[in-house]
Every structure is written in C-alpha cells, then in structure tokens.
Fold this protein.
Amino acid sequence: MPNVSSWIRIPLTLAITLGAVIAGWYLWRTYEESPWTRDGRIRANVVMVTPDVNGAVIDIRVKDNQEVKIGDVLFVVDPARYQLALSEAEAVQAGAKSQLDQKQQELAGREKLSSGSISAEALNQARTAALAAQAAYDQAVAAFKVAKLNLARTEVRAPVNGYITNLLMSRGDYATAGRAMLAIVDSDSYYVAGYFEETKLRRIRAGDKVSIRLMAYEPAMSGHVESVARAITDRDNVLGSDLVANVNPTFSWVRLAQRIPVRIAIDDIPAGITLSAGMTATIVVMDR
C-alpha cells in the first residue's frame, strides 16, 4: 500500500509543479507583452487668457475653479480711457466726412463748368483734393473701428469652455496687453497620455479600444487609441557646443525599455467622475 501511495504522489507532484511553471510562464508573458500600463495621466489643454488692451482691472466676474462657457466675461479692464478715445475717433470721423462732402461738391461743381470757364489744372487740383479727402475719411473710419474694438476688448471673455484654475488675479491689478492674467482648463480637450514600454507597442494600433481606470474612482472609463508619439528625448545624445554629437563614454549594460507616450481619446465618462488634469490612470488596451 505505501508503494502505491508513492506512485500516486510522484505524478501528482510533477503535475502540480508543471502546472505552476506553465501558469507562472503565462503570467510572466502576459505581464511582459500585454499592452497595459499603470503610468497614465489625464491631460487637458490649459488656455492662458491675455487681455488685448492695457489698464487697471476694475471687476472680476469669476471665481477660482468656476465653470465658464465660451463668451462669458471673465474680468473688465477700466474702459474710461477707451470710451474717450472712441468719442474722439467719432468726432474725427464726422469732421472727415464733412470735409469729404465739401470737396466732392466742389469737384462736382467744377466738372459742370465748360473748358473755357476752368482750366485743366484747376480741375485736376479739385479731383486730387477730393481723393485726399476720401483717403482721410477712410482713415478716420478705420480709427473709429479700432477705438470701438478696443472699448469692446476691455471686457475679457472666455475663449473656450472650461474651468478657471489657480486664480491669482485681484481687483486693481494692472493688465498689460499680451501678458497672461488667468488660466482656463479646456473641458473639451481632456485626453489620456499613457506611457507604454516600447516592447508593448507592437500590439497597439490606432483605434484600439481602451479601458481607463482612475486611481480616484472605481468605475472604468472607455476610450480608444488616437495616436502613438513618434519621438522622445534621447538623454544620452546631447548636442555639443560645436554642434557635434556629445557621446557618453560610459554605457550601462542594464538596458531598460523606453516608455513611449500614447494619446488616448476618452469616449465615455461614467456619472460621478470628475476629471482633473494630472490624475493617475491604469490603462489596458483591449485585444482586437
């Protein structure tokens, strides 16, 4: 009887060992080759809002982290100077229009005269004066439109849908044209950047379905592969001061797979999930 038990235990032990080896090999191959990564980040475009005119900020219409829509007024630059400039431009335009009307009437009257009553030189001078008056009027009209545009631009509006982030501007700050005053996270631009080891890229194609699981939330989001980055920085190939290759004389024998960015579009966001750029995500590319 003990001999029979030994004959049973030996094959059973071998079978269990072989099964464990096969399972371990399968798990290792799955870990090494399956296209998944825990190194994912939520990304979004951040729009730097800059005023188009100079002046003191007299009113701030938004709060930090507030949602805004395209066209919403964010803050107001003191419009007093621009209202005066518009009034001045309007007066100049009216004066130029009056001068133009006068010169055109003079030209029309002289053109009705016979050649014996007016010289060709005088007629040409009238025509030149009318053309100059027309040019001056056109310039005044353009200046009026610029003044009107500058006044409208004292109300700085949201260029995208999104959320105000890290609002540091205060009432009374001086706004300078071209200098960013606040930032908006574009809510229509959220995507996921997944950093996959280069050994796994051969199983990733544009259009592949993707499961996205955030560290902060339990439900998984769905998406698809949009594109794969075509370049990353080569840390060992720094350009020398004389524009020749600066090659590192040492070489590490431990070669680690590089991580390549993969852009993933978000197709569906379950209810209750609030996205913030910078969140960590685990990404699994589904088998085709």
Notes: The CA atoms of residues 191 and 265 lie 5 Å apart. The longest strand covers residues 259-268. DSSP finds three helices and 16 strands in the chain. The mean pLDDT is 88.
